[in-house]
Every structure is written in structure tokens, then in C-alpha cells.
Backbone:
């Protein structure tokens, strides 16, 4: 098993020995090609998005929840939807979300202030931050405020439960077969939680349709955009393909559910590990804080705006270096069509390719001293020298992460405000990494937070 700290170290060792990649067997008959070098990753990720099938055991577990959304769909459906959804992540749509991120992170900080009223507190970053990323997603996708950070919310609880159930199922091979799984208590819980989540999304879409005029939808939404933040549901209702056809309610539900799923744990993992890395390297933490204080020097209250986010070079380098060392999505997979490698060898059709993002980021043939946290790797001077595929936390090519600007924006806003209000320090025990679909820590990622005087 490669998902524990020891397993990950063994895997990194293999990568150092076979820096291009290696083959291993899943069970007695299923060959898997592990790729962990930019030269090999290029042809694999560049293979036409339409024929590439993802092949991940987890994905079959998630399908009842996510349906035919971007993550799991393929072929024409995927490419049509990808074109229709791309405008949803245009910076004009994302800009107003900075205010939402500011509000949701401030709710989390108010909790931290209470918990650290004695001066400091030891907190599980994953627990706090994933609740916060869910809160902001629910506001950005649905314009719905469930106050989930302050009191239990049925919908958010269901999403947290679905994610936990998928993770648990992945650990027990006896539960891989659907018909066995749905006989278990967990399987039934999974089904119930799925229904609850779907009902919520359906209700929002129905409600929105009711208030939409049957004609002049475009004008209506454009007018709305002037007075109010457009959420993703608005944008999905507005979007049309080349023939003027719109998305069905079912399609919209699937895509909204996909955003909620793909956006929360990944961003929470990214943020938790960046705080961990800055806790371990206080001098970098202090340099980020100074950069932020300098930028907001004359501003009272200390508020952050979209344009500020481009003025934080060092903080951005620290986030990237953390995404390198602790990529939130450590591995992705593809079932290949015939792929020709640079040396002429061919990965035959049907073979599973594991694109080992973590392995690539820890490959000593790609990154010297890969285990060292060193933000200067992302100094623009040094970036010029490096292959664009050496750093792929959001994957690359046609099926890369559609939410990456959203995620980088949220991470920056959260980090800026956190560093202004708190100092983070490591806990006594070193975390042990644990990988399922995302990079976690066994038993949570615990850090000390200390209030800073305003
Ligand atoms: C730090 C945060 C994030 C990381 C590291 C991340 C990483 C990734 C990666 C590696 C993929 C490729 C998956 C594969 O090929 O199997 C992906 C796809 C995707 N991501 Fe993200 N993601 C993040 C945040 C988000 C957010 C915030 C959203 C939405 C609001 C999002 C939505 C998606 C979607 C819809 C896809 C599927 C795209 C497609 O196949 O066309 N992600 N992400
Ligand atoms: C990617 O694929 C396209 C066509 O499928 C090809 O024209 C292009 O050269 C490829 N790019 C790389 C970097 O391999
Ligand atoms: C940011 O959040 C704080 C705390 O909730 C609030 O007082 C402030 O008005 C917010 N700023 C913006 C620009 O929304």
C-alpha cells in the first residue's frame, strides 16, 4: 500500500531509482505504468482529451454523487460542457468572490480568536479549513449562506460524510463491488447523503428558474450582474453552446455538484499544508507577513482586493512551493490510447497510466534536493529554466483543473488574512502524510495558532 507515510517514502525511493517512470502490477494481471517525469508526462497528458478515459477506482465510487459532470464525463459531452463552463471561471466572475472569501475566512478567524483566547490554541487545520472552503463554495456556487461554520448544516454535513465514506470504502477492498457495498450500513448512508445533496441542488435550480423570466434571460442576468454577485448557477443557466443550446437542469446539477466536490478538500489540503510549511519555516512566514503588511500599510480596515493579489510575489512563491512539496491531488490516472514516448517506446492501448504528480514533484532528476522547502525555486528567474510540466499540481493539458484560478485566489486571500491575524507554529508531533484522493495527514494536521495584536 502506498498511501501511508512509509509507503510514500518507498515510492519516492523508487522514483529516485527510476526517474522516468516504472511499471507495477495491480493484482496479478493488471499492469500500471507510473509516470513521474515531464518528458513522459507530456505525451500522456497531451493525448486528446476526448479519448482519454480516466480510470480511477475512486471515480466509480463517486459517480452516483457527481454524475456526468466535468470530472467523470468524456467524449463530446465533456468537450461541449468544458467549453460552456470555461466562462464561469473568467476573472470578471471571480473578482467579486474575493469579498466572499474575506467573509468566510473572517468567520473562521473569529472562531480561532475564541479558541485562542488564552493566547494560543492547537487546532486541526483540515477540520477548520475544509468547513470554510465548503462555506465559500456554497456561497459562490449557490449564493446560499448555511452558516455551516457556526452551526451544523444538513447539506454540508452530508458532503463531509460523502467524502469520508468514499475514503473509507477505498480502504476496504471487500466493499469495491457495488452490490455488496449498498447492502452495508455505510452504503445506505452514502445513498441517503447523495439524495440529500441532490435535493438541495435541485431545489436551488428550480427556485432560480421560477424567478427567471422566460424571455430575455441574457438581459436579466446582465442587469443582475451589475447589482449583485453572479453565482455559478446563474452562469450555468446563462451558458449556451455554439448552436445556442442550453444546459439541462440535470446537467447544471451535476456541474454544481462537481464544483462542490472538486473544490473543497483540494483547496483545504493546499491551504493546510502551506500553513504547515510556513509554521516549520518561521523566517519565510515572517517574510510573507511583512510583504502583506507592506502592501496594506495605508489601509484601514485591512482589506484585500483582487488587484492586490498580483502584488504578493513572495507569498505566491510560498504557496507554489507548498503545492510542489504537498500536492493536494498527488496522483491522477488515465487509461491510455496508444501513446508514443520520446524514445519511441509505446504505451499500449488500454494500459492504466498513473500520472504521479507527487513523484514528479519529488523526483531528484527534476528538482534538486526535492525534500527541501525552498520558495526561491519559483523565483521568476528560476522558473524560466524549468519544464512547464515539472510543476503540475493542477494537472496540465486539455483536462487540467478548470478551478485553478479560483483556488489560487482563495488560497491567497485566506493566507493574507491569516498571516495578518495569527502566527502559526508547528505542533509537537510531526504529521504523517496519508493519501487517498487528496494529500491528508493521519489524524488531521495540527498546528498551534497564536493571536497577533491588530
Ligand atoms: C488547490 C486546489 C485544487 C487542486 C490542487 C486541483 C487539482 C485538480 C487536478 C489535478 C485535476 C485533474 C484531475 C484528473 O485529471 O483526474 C482537477 C480537475 C478539476 N478541478 Fe480542480 N483542483 C483544485 C481546486 C478546484 C476548484 C476550487 C474547483 C472548482 C471550483 C475545481 C474543479 C475542477 C474540475 C471541475 C475538474 C475537472 C476538469 C475536467 O476534467 O475538465 N478544482 N483539479
Ligand atoms: C499535442 O498534441 C497535438 C495534436 O494532438 C500536437 O499537434 C502537439 O504537437 C502535441 N504537443 C506536444 C507538446 O506534444
Ligand atoms: C471583510 O470581512 C470583515 C469581517 O467580516 C468585514 O468587517 C469587512 O467589511 C469585509 N470586507 C469586505 C471588503 O467585504
Residues:
Amino acid at each position: 500500500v502506498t498511501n501511508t507515510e512509509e509507503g510514500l517514502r518507498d515510492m519516492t525511493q523508487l522514483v529516485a531509482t527510476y526517474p522516468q517512470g516504472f511499471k507495477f502490477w495491480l493484482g496479478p494481471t493488471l499492469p500500471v505504468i507510473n509516470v513521474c517525469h515531464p518528458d513522459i508526462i507530456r505525451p500522456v497528458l497531451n493525448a486528446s482529451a476526448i479519448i482519454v478515459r480516466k480510470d480511477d477506482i475512486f471515480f466509480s465510487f463517486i459517480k452516483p454523487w457527481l454524475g456526468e459532470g466535468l470530472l467523470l464525463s468524456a467524449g463530446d459531452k465533456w468537450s461541449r460542457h468544458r467549453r460552456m463552463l470555461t466562462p464561469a471561471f473568467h476573472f470578471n466572475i471571480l473578482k467579486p468572490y474575493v469579498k466572499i472569501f474575506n467573509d468566510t475566512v473572517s468567520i473562521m478567524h473569529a472562531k480561532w480568536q475564541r479558541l485562542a483566547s488564552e493566547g494560543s490554541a492547537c487546532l486541526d487545520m483540515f477540520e477548520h479549513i475544509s468547513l470554510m472552503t465548503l462555506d465559500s463554495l456554497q456561497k459562490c456556487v449557490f449564493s446560499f449562506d448555511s452558516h455551516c461554520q457556526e452551526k451544523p448544516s444538513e447539506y454540508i454535513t452530508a458532503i463531509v460524510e460523502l467524502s469520508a465514506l468514499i475514503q473509507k470504502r477505498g480502504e476496504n477492498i471487500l466493499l469495491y463491488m457495488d452490490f455488496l457495498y449498498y447492502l452495508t450500513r455505510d452504503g445506505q448512508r452514502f445513498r441517503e447523503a447523495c439524495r440529500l445533496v441532490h435535493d438541495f441542488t435541485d431545489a436551488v435550480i428550480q427556485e432560480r428558474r421560477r424567478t427567471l423570466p422566460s424571455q430575455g434571460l441574457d438581459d436579466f442576468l446582465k442587469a443582475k450582474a451589475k447589482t449583485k454577485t453572479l453565482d455559478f448557477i446563474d452562469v450555468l443557466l446563462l451558458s449556451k453552446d455554439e448552436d445556442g443550446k442550453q444546459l439541462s437542469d440535470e446537467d447544471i446539477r451535476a456541474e454544481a455538484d462537481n464544483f462542490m466536490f472538486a473544490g473543497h478538500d483540494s483547496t483545504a489540503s493546499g491551504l493546510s499544508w502551506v500553513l504547515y510549511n510556513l509554521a516549520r519555516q518561521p523566517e519565510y512566514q515572517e517574510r510573507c507577513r511583512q510583504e502583506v503588511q507592506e502592501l496594506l500599510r495605508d489601509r484601514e480596515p485591512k482589506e484585500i482586493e483582487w488587484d492586490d493579489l498580483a502584488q504578493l510575489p513572495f507569498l505566491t512563491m510560498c504557496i507554489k512551493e507548498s503545492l510542489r512539496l504537498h500536492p493536494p491531488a498527488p496522483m491522477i490516472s488515465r487509461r491510455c490510447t496508444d501513446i508514443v514516448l520520446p524514445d519511441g517506446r509505446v504505451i499500449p492501448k488500454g494500459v492504466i497510466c498513473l500520472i504521479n504528480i507527487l513523484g514528479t514533484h519529488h523526483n531528484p532528476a527534476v528538482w534538486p534536493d526535492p525534500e527541501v522547502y525552498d520558495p526561491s525555486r519559483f523565483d521568476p528567474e528560476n522558473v524560466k529554466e524549468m519544464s512547464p510540466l515539472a510543476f503540475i499540481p493542477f494537472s496540465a493539458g486539455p483536462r487540467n483543473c478548470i478551478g485553478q484560478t479560483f483556488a489560487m485566489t482563495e488560497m491567497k486571500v485566506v493566507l493574507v488574512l491569516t498571516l495578518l491575524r495569527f502566527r502559526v507554529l508547528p505542533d509537537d508531533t510531526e504529521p504523517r502524510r496519508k493519501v487517498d484522493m487528496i494529500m491528508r495527514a493521519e489524524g488531521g494536521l495540527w498546528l498551534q495558532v497564536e493571536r497577533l495584536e491588530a
